Amino acid sequence: MTTPAPLTCPKCQAAITGLLASPGAPRPCGACGRLLEGWSFPALQRPPAPARLAEALVAVEDAGCFYHAQSRAQVPCDLCGRFLCALCDVELHGQHFCPGCVNTGKKKKQIRNLDTDRLLYGGIALMIALLPVLLFWPLTIITGPLAIFVAVYGWNKPPSLTGTGRGSAIVAIVLGLLETAAWILLFLGLFKAF
Length: 194
Description:
Blueprint (H helix, E strand, L loop, with lengths): L26 E2 L6 E2 L5 H4 L29 E2 L6 E2 L5 E3 L2 E3 L1 H10 L12 H15 L4 H14 L13 H27 L1
Antiparallel strand pairs: 1-2, 3-4, 5-6
Helix pairs in contact: 3-4, 3-5, 4-5
């Protein structure tokens, strides 16, 4: 592991010492007096965890990995029974699988709790709210409340694996509320007219 570069003041480039001793409380730079605040991230200071390496076969009685015959087997696959070295072992929820079974299990849904895809309710709700506005606006009498329902229903569902947040759900709720409010105001205006 390499030693991290010393911290320097962004204004005068002087070396900073003791700044991380009290994060959350700005301290002046010793050279120029500029107030500075520093935060320490312990994970950056720790050495990385050792990688799992496949052990070489030592004795004739040792089982070899199905995929790497020269490597010693650690565990059998829980689906097909193939012997796996540490490199080939895919551990999911306490079970061990070979790469082939993970791929097959993903396609055939044989492995429980293996997320292969997720419905993005916020995106669906946003499309429900937007498409009628763009294509045929009278449908918003149905799609406005439906967009709100879908966004609220999917609010606590697992989020996307790509990191998209709840922004589309919030926009869908706002659009759905606006569409619903517009229809209520339209009906109230028509009711008062008669």
